[in-house]
TrEMBL record:
Name by which UniProt lists this protein: Peptide/nickel transport system ATP-binding protein/oligopeptide transport system ATP-binding protein
Subcellular location: Cell inner membrane
SMART domains assigned: AAA (SM00382)
SUPFAM superfamilies (alphabetical): P-loop containing nucleoside triphosphate hydrolases
Family: Belongs to the ABC transporter superfamily.
GO cellular component, one term: plasma membrane
Topology term for the membrane: Peripheral membrane protein
Record keywords: ATP-binding, Nucleotide-binding, Transport
Domain of life: Bacteria
Organism the protein comes from: Bradyrhizobium lablabi
Domain (ABC transporter): residue spans on this chain: 5-255
Biological role: Involved in beta-(1-->2)glucan export. Transmembrane domains (TMD) form a pore in the inner membrane and the ATP-binding domain (NBD) is responsible for energy generation.
GO molecular-function terms, A-Z: ATP binding; ATP hydrolysis activity
GO biological process terms on file: peptide transport; transmembrane transport
Length: 369
């Protein structure tokens, strides 16, 4: 069966500087050969630090910007070959919601106008029935229909994100790109919005690309995860497999930074040394080598290919096979991974033994650095 979305070898380099004659002299390698698929009704999380290229991938997928190379296929059709009519239909099928709903909602429009606009634009619902559809949409995202007459500033951040979600849903999309949708919200509101997104996915069969710098958030929503570093995917796997046993040293470091309220074991935080390199001048070979505790000469010289095992767990690391087990990283279900169980058993003091590896001793929070 064809995946809903197939992204193959996407490349986008932005011009960062020009000579006095206008010739490009420096490029930001924002996205440098990214491939992934998204199945209908499923969530792919794109995770990585700020500047790794997540938002650029989102914009490329929606064809808001043009790629330098690579292809994006939606329901089997190459978006690069679509004429204006087909592209318009695609714009209905694929929507985006942003981190800051206030910035993405027109402050001079009422909620009713905000939600009616896409219905009119795509000629979806006859005028007399639009009010009813607006009320349906508001109920769908957990807001009262009477809110339709209000303006965005009259709502809290969480409510505004619900309005942004309702606007995306108005055109009955198949795919929604959620670009850091809960990062600007209070922690107490985040899980409500994540639950809403999950509920809508179940009810409407939506697929999501969930963009986030935060693996802790992703854990609650992703079916599959792709970890990005400096414009490339360094690891991709089913979410459960990645959280239980991350293979790439960068994924391990990101995962170890998730605070756990009641960790079942003393846990370590893998601290990445040094500055994050710039996408303007990424390191040679493996782009993570300057911060990787396991880097060897080969890592500085050769770009590691993204190689998948039989289960589809793919890693771009020369040393995958030799790395130590993903020690005391707490997996998604809050229990121990089999590897960790072995590790704990190897120490006579159980959890205490793991702490002897010279890591955070408090057992409650990652080590503060
Ligand atoms: N229009 C542009 N012109 C030049 N450089 C750009 C442009 N858009 C993005 N970049 C650069 O491309 C790189 C990737 O940016 P991008 O916004 O995709 O990353 P990100 O992972 O989404 O980060 P953030 O979470 O901070 O948005 C960064 O170095 C950024 O400065």
């Amino acid at each position: 069966m064809t995946a809903l979305l197939e992204v193959e070898g996407l490349v986008k380099h932005f011009v960062a500087a020009r000579s006095v004659f206008g010739r490009p002299t420096a490029h930001v390698k924002a996205v440098d050969g990214v491939s992934f698929t998204v199945e209908a009704g499923k969530t792919l999380a794109l995770v990585g630090e700020s500047g790794c290229g997540k938002s650029t991938v989102s914009r490329l997928v929606l064809r808001l910007i043009e790629a330098d190379a690579g292809s994006v296929r939606f329901e089997g059709r190459d978006l690069g070959t679509l004429d204006a009519t087909a592209l318009r239909a695609f714009r209905r099928d694929a929507q985006i919601i942003f981190q800051d709903p206030y910035a993405s909602l027109n402050p001079r429009m009422t909620v009713s106008q905000i939600l009616t606009e896409p219905l009119a634009l795509h000629d979806l619902v006859p005028s007399p029935r639009r009010r009813e559809r607006v009320e349906q949409l508001l109920r769908l995202v957990g807001l009262e229909p009477r809110f339709a007459r209000r303006y965005p500033h009259e709502f809290s951040g969480g409510q505004r994100q619900r309005i942004a979600i309702a606007r995306a849903l108005a055109v009955e999309p198949k795919l929604i790109i959620c670009d850091e949708p809960v990062s600007a919200l209070d922690v107490s509101i985040r899980s409500q919005i994540l639950n809403l997104l999950r509920d809508l996915q179940d009810r409407l069969g939506l697929a999501y690309i969930f963009v986030s710098h935060d693996l802790a958030v992703v854990k609650h929503i992703a079916d599959r995860v792709a970890v990005m570093n400096l414009g490339t995917i360094v690891e991709t796997a089913e979410a459960q497999a990645l959280f239980a046993a991350p293979k790439h040293p960068y994924s391990r470091a990101l995962l170890s930074a998730i605070p756990v309220p009641r960790p079942p074991a003393k846990r370590s935080r893998i601290v990445l040394e040094g500055e994050m390199p710039s996408a303007l001048n990424p390191p040679s070979g493996c782009r993570f080598h300057t911060r990787c505790p396991y880097a060897i000469a080969r890592c500085r010289a050769e770009v590691p290919p993204l190689l998948a095992d039989a289960s589809g767990h793919a890693t771009a690391c020369h040393r995958t096979a030799e790395l130590p087990p993903p020690e005391n990283i707490v997996p998604a279900d809050g229990g121990f991974s089999p590897t960790l169980e072995k590790l704990v058993a190897a120490f006579s003091g159980g959890a205490e033994g793991v702490a002897r590896t010279g890591v955070d001793q408090s057992g409650t929070q990652p080590a503060v650095v």
